Please model this.
Amino acid sequence: MKLQNLRLGCNDLDKARAFYDATFGALGVERTQMPPEYPIAMYKLPGGPNFAVGPTRDKQPATHANGGTIGFACDSAEKVKAFHDAGVANGGKTIEDPPGWREGGGARLYLSYLRDPYGNKICALHRG
Model:
């Protein structure tokens, strides 16, 4: 089985596009052009699923998943930092600790945790 698509809800698509265009752009991923009848921002992640953000289908306000985290692997600590900086500059908020190296359980990771403008928890990481 392979994860095909991951979608988050948002209440302001323009704000979501600015945030994800910046964070994914820092990782070299551009937004996929979508037909006007699909009011979402879609990003085809290399080697992974599609990532989409858009209004809820039931027209109710979008809310974040408490306890949920979506992580993106990067090939360098510099890209993790660029992802974080682009996110903060476009409405995201740093959570937990600032970007940096963490060690534990035999692993060494460079991590950055953010909340997107809607409260969704996302992270970028590089294994050192």
Remarks:
- The radius of gyration is 15 Å.
- The chain has a mean pLDDT of 91.
- The first helix runs from residue 13 to 25.
- The helical segments are 13-25, 77-89.
